[in-house]
Amino acid sequence: MTKKSTWRKLVSAMLALALLSVPVLSALGENADSLSKYDPAIDIVFVRAVDNDLTSNVLPQTPNETIESNRWFDLYQDELGINISYAWTVQGGYTDDAYKQKINVTLASGDLPDVITVTSAQLKQLADADVIEDLTGYFDQYASDLTRQVYSDEGSSVLDSATFEGKLMAIPNLEASIESAQFLWIRKDWLDKLGLDVPTTMQELLAVSTAFATQDPDGNGIADTYGLAITKDLYAGCMGVEGFFAGFHAYPNFWTTDADGKLVYGSVQPEMKDALTALAAMYQNGEIDQEFGVKDGGKVAETIAAGKIGIDFGEQWNPLYPLNQNYNNDPTADWISLPIPSVDDTAVSVPLKFRTNMYFAVRKGFEHPEALVKLVNMHLEKNWGETNNFSWYYMPAENGNTSVWKFSPVTPYPPYKNLNAFLEIEAARNADAMDTLVGEAKVIQSNVDAYLAGDGSVWGWDKIYGVEGVYNVLKAYRDNGQLLVEKFTGAPTETMVERRATLEQMEKEMIVKVIMGAASIDEFDKFVSDWYQLGGQAITDEVNAWYASLSAAE
Amino acid sequence: MQKLRRELPLHLMILPGVILLILFQYVPMAGIIIAFQKFIPAKGLFGDQKWIGLDNFRYVFQLPSFTAVIGNTVVISLYKIILGLIVPVIFAILINEVRNKRFKTSIQTTIYLPHFLSWVVLGGILIDILSPSDGLVNRMIKAFGGSPIFFLGDNKWFQFTLIFSETWKEFGYGTIVYLAAITGIDPNLYEAAQIDGANRWKQTLHVTLPGMKMVIVLLMVLSLGNLLNAGFDQVFNLYSPTVYQTGDIIDTFVYRIGLLDAQFGVATAVGLFKSIISFVFVSVAYFSAYHFADYRIF
Amino acid sequence: MQAKPKSKPFSWFSVINTIILTLAALSCLVPIIHIAAISFSSSSAAATGIVTFWPVDFSLNSYQYVIKRAQFWQSMLVSLERITLGGGINLLLIILSSFPLSKERHEFRARSFYAWLFFITMLFSGGLIPWYMAIRQYKLLDSIWALVLPGAVPVFSVILMLNFFRQIPKELSEAACIDGAGQWRILWQIYVPTSTPAIATVLLFALVGHWNSWFDGLILMNNPDHYPLQSYIQTIVVQRTYSMLSREEIQQLATISDRTLRSAQIFLGSLPIILVYPFLQRYFVKGIVLGGVKG
Fold first, then answer.
1. A57 and C219 in contact by Cβ < 8 A?
2. Subunit contact A131:B240, Cβ cutoff 8 A
């Protein structure tokens, strides 16, 4: 039965994906309350992290706007009668240490703002402590049709992740899981130079890597090039190892299902061994930077920029960073995107991590919990709804195409918006009707056009959305049923909270050691037994209990 | 009564300081109770927390990483203490040998500089100059034909880097007290030694060093109290997960487990543990200082 | 007064000694010079790692950027406000607290009690959360007072000061006492004027301490605009992770190579101290020595 339910979920995920082709999401049959205005106006207090993009890019481009006074605040005030303010702000992202420490002292001191932006672990604590509002009724009553659709595009997983004992305790700040799909990025100009074909199997890729490291593809006569880019963090959206492992049907740092339909942690599965052995051989052979164990993304990006690396596993945005830095220094550097090659005849499954990681919870006793739902409705409506004003509220051209949407304290988006935009562009291209593009697709295409007209600074956009863009590969992944959605989307379990840091550290140490040859591959077996002993078994049991409760609820 | 009146101004003088200490030190000390609770932040400090006795202590002591943390702390601070004594003594003696006054002053002024810079600033500088690919230090190493060293990212080197950079930051400043001690030595002793035919080396050995003995012993004893303070500011601004194994110290551990992982109960327990051990060390140190050197802190 | 070991005017020893001391002094200067050189170089020169002690491809770009960066200047202002207020308050409280504590027990019977009260705070603390909650309770969060009041009594400096006070001859105060002077007058008219070196020392400690603090700013301020300079520098020096970047953040990363920018801000952040401390040197050396404690 578990097997069957897995299949059902896969199928429903496919269906959701298939629905994407609807260009603008419908906002018909709206319930009257979803965007109604408060009179008199109400106040609502948030907390927020102000990321670098906002301070360095958006604010300089929006002269009369500030974090606490801007077009989004005006919109919420004028149309909804909601006055937003922040109890505090910190510099950095919501996952950075600065926000973490500030939110932790805030939670501990019990001085909650009206809406608090927390991780799923914190959400669980807040829910257990009974200090936040149950939003189930408010969501049911106030969510607009668009909001409902957006929140069910990834199946029930997004709302499930904020649901405890059947109650929706927060509105997830939706992040698209499909964007975590990994691709193989490779320097076509090096392939051509060395007379190599585009690799279609893992064996071919390994041969290419060897050639890149040993046959002097940059032609400077010095053996200073590497095959594969990896960083000390191992798991990352660029220069990571997860794509490589997927080629061996191994899914580290990922909850997947075993043959019995039980959830298992990918990092402790036997498939890891072959991939690790391969990486160790590559390191031994000088195909991986001997210093990778101490280099963070920034450092490895510098090596890429210097034109010393030819292979990178990462997400769709890699041409915008770090690959473009290579192109900027050397316009002949031609990075192309390929599907992850398989080590055998079985097609690669591309792991999609569950990406939604922040939640908006409402302080117990706040008089207008529904205001949060209305804000979400409004944010989605003005960007992707029927009355959208994308070119004013999202990335306005007159503000240098910067992300003014970040002024809004709530920022969910339709999870398939990028793939959708690509499909729209492709359709328009095929129909030779580019001028029919609207909204985000139009902004994107303007960048691609700029590149085609010779503007090298937007090279990455063509690599993503252009004719040969990476979304072709994503589309193929989708059409071939290669996308593997992460099965565990709940809050971290009790043992996870306690042990995860230790276990993750063990895991990374083991991988780095094995790759660097400081330990033999047997270290992996020791790690697996240690992992189960030091809490992994308990975590696996808890995760499966969660999974079972989910199927039971359905 | 008259005595009280005479002392009243003294009470009044100390009152503001006492009030501030009570407000900002003693009131928060009540928070030590969370070391004995399964503290859930969302419930608040005076919320319905579960009392778990010594479980937090037990939990942390069974963590394999915590033993390493204690070890790192002691090793790092011990080396820092030892070098922090020896190096300034040597430099005080060397500086004392300089006779060109202007040179002497400029040397002194220059070597005091790093002491006044924060670890935030120095951390930024060190990260830059120690970078394995293009940092200044590694460029020099490469120029001399060596292979680059990842001072901040290699577990073999990280402790060394911490100890060395701390010593470098503080050695100049440390010379102040020793130079003063040397200045205080009776010049007649040198003359007597010269008459006995002692060369400069002998003079240093038999006059200068003995003259500094008291100060050296005193500072050594007092620094024992810092055995569990391996330098939060420094480590925090220099370390990264790769070197937790050798660089994680009690204070950074408390910071991460408390502020980032929100396990405040455990963090407070570790903090309390550290305070108690330090209290013992400090008491021993000050008692010895009083006993051997007749030094009293208050 | 200086004890001068006498020997021949020239010796190999003094040559070697000069070299050693010069190298040691250089080691203290070179890092700063290097950072300054990077900050004045073009970002491409800095990125390729060819800058040593002199700017390569001289450029003021990073400084232009910093000058436009309002946050940098706001932080600078906060820091200045902090050291003025904090330094003043520290100094006042150090003097006021150390005078009674410098008395012998027969002169001030509660002395031991107060001494312990001060001493214990050096060893025990309730930890960060209770500390934070107390400050919140006093409604100080996000104000300059949160940076100034919690550390208003630096016990270490109090010890230094009271040791200094003890060395002032008792006869002075006894004579004044006979003239009918009260404790306050004795403190302000006899002790304070004779203690300039110690006062300069503890003041310097206070100023440097306040200037260099960063952690409390991060925790206690509710808005990055209210960070003192060192907290701000800390936020730009920390590393970032690359796992969860939005497309827009990525674009931004790509456009700024921030090594020169970072160097410029580090350099500017340390400049005031580099400029000021040499002039205070004379005082603090004396103060430390007479106080008999290292800071």
1. no
2. no
Residue C249 pLDDT more than 90? Answer: no
Q: A518: how many CB neighbours lie within 10 A of its CB?
A: 12
Pick from A131, A232, A509: which is nearest to B42 by CB?
A131
Check CB contact of B43 with chain A, cutoff 8 Å: yes
Topology classification of domain A26-176+355-407: D-Maltodextrin-Binding Protein; domain 2 (3.40.190)
What is the residue extent of each domain of chain A? 26-176+355-407
For each of the domains in chain C, give its residue range(s) and CATH number, in order of start. Answer: 18-59 (no CATH), 69-291 (1.10.3720.10)
Mean pLDDT (whole number) for B85-112: 91
Give yes or no for B142 touching A (CB within 8 A): no
Quote the CA–CA distance of B117 and A523 in Å, as a whole number.
Answer: 44
Highest mean pLDDT among A99-108, A448-457, B62-71: A448-457
C-alpha–C-alpha distance, residues C106 and B242, integer Å? 58
Residue B48 predicted with pLDDT over 50: yes
| Cβ–Cβ < 8 Å for A100, A501 | no
Residues spanned by the domain of B120: 68-253
For residue A91, what are its two tokens?
């510099």
SS3 C149: coil
Across the interface, of A101, A110, A502, the residue whose CB is closest to B44 is A110
The alpha helices in chain B, defined as continuous H runs, are 2-21, 27-29, 55-62, 64-97, 101-116, 119-129, 136-143, 158-183, 187-195, 200-203, 209-223, 232-238, 244-247, 250-255, 264-293
Residue B178 falls inside a structural domain = yes
Residue B230 lies in a domain: yes
**Total residue count of chain B as it appears in this document:** 298
Measured between alpha carbons, how far is B200 from B180 in angstroms, rounded to an integer? Answer: 19
Judged by CB atoms closer than 8 Å, whether chains meet at B26 and C108 is answered as no
Flag if C96 and B16 touch (Cβ within 8 Å).
yes
Residue pair A46/A68 in contact (Cβ under 8 Å)? The answer is no
- Cβ proximity of B71 and B78 under 8 Å: no
Residue whose C-alpha is closest to residue A497's, from B155, B291, C194, B266:
B266
Distance CA A105, CA A97 (A): 12
- Which chain A residues are Cβ-neighbours of B241 within 8 angstroms? 232, 505, 508
Residue B247: inside a domain: yes
Query: Contact A278/A516 with Cβ under 8 angstroms?
Result: no
In the predicted model, what is the mean pLDDT of residues B3-21?
A: 90
Nearest CA to A546 out of A176, A265, A164, A152 is that of A164
Helices B264-293, B209-223: axis angle to 10 degrees equals: 150
Which of C235, C223, C142 lies closest to A47 in space, CA to CA?
C223
Report if residue B35 sits inside a domain: no
Tokens 């698209």 belong to A176
Contact of C128 with chain A, judged by CB distance below 8 Å, is answered with yes
Would you call B298 and C96 a contact, using CB atoms and an 8 Å cutoff? Answer: no
pTM here is 0.80
B242 touches chain C (CB under 8 A): no
Domain count, chain B: 1
